[in-house]
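Title: Comparing notes on inverse folding

I've been comparing how different people in this forum approach sequence design from structure. To keep things fair, I'm posting one structure and asking everyone to reply with a full sequence. Here's the target:
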């Protein structure tokens, strides 16, 4: 009969000891990555400027004078709908017109390009400009202009923000959704 040597209960296999040695640093690294990931996801954005208030843009000031359903705006202004906007709007969306006033304050003036502006929606979704008048303009110091920017936004969007040149953020509010339906 062979005599078996008694193995102490506290003895571990060598690979198990190596694994245990890496558990604490791995957990620490995971915790650091989770904290960094959470702060990146929940980073505070600059608050948007309230509807009607002025915000700085390169060369001057920008202000939203109004936001309303585009069809309603066209009817109030007794205008014809441009051919680019005469087609169907995607299901679950409607067109809004944003009345953006720009004033050149700097001696160099202010350059406006409609494509610099997007509507930021909940969940980091963005709507680009689908039509504008004008689409580009150069303003000399002291000049003011009003641009009409048309966007397609979801019917049930709550709070929308117009983002533009130099990270300007202008709150569009939610009044243009007051009817709750397609406009």
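Reply #1:
Here's my take.
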């Amino acid at each position: 009969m062979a005599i078996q040597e008694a193995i102490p209960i506290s003895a571990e296999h060598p690979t198990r000891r190596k694994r245990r040695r890496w558990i604490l640093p791995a957990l620490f690294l995971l915790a650091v990555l989770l904290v960094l990931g959470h702060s990146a996801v929940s980073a505070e954005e600059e608050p948007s400027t309230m509807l009607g208030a002025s915000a700085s843009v390169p060369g001057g000031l920008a202000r939203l004078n109004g936001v309303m359903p585009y069809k309603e705006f066209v009817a109030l202004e007794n205008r014809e709908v441009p051919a680019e906007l005469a087609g169907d709007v995607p299901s679950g969306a409607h067109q809004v017109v944003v009345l953006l006033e720009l004033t050149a304050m700097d001696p160099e003036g202010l350059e406006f390009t409609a494509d610099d502006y997007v509507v930021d929606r909940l969940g980091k979704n963005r709507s680009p400009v689908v039509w504008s008048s004008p689409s580009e303009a150069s303003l000399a110091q002291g000049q003011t202009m009003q641009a009409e920017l048309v966007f397609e936004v979801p019917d049930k969007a709550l709070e929308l923000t117009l983002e533009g040149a130099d990270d300007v953020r202008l709150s569009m509010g939610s009044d243009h959704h007051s009817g709750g339906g397609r406009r």
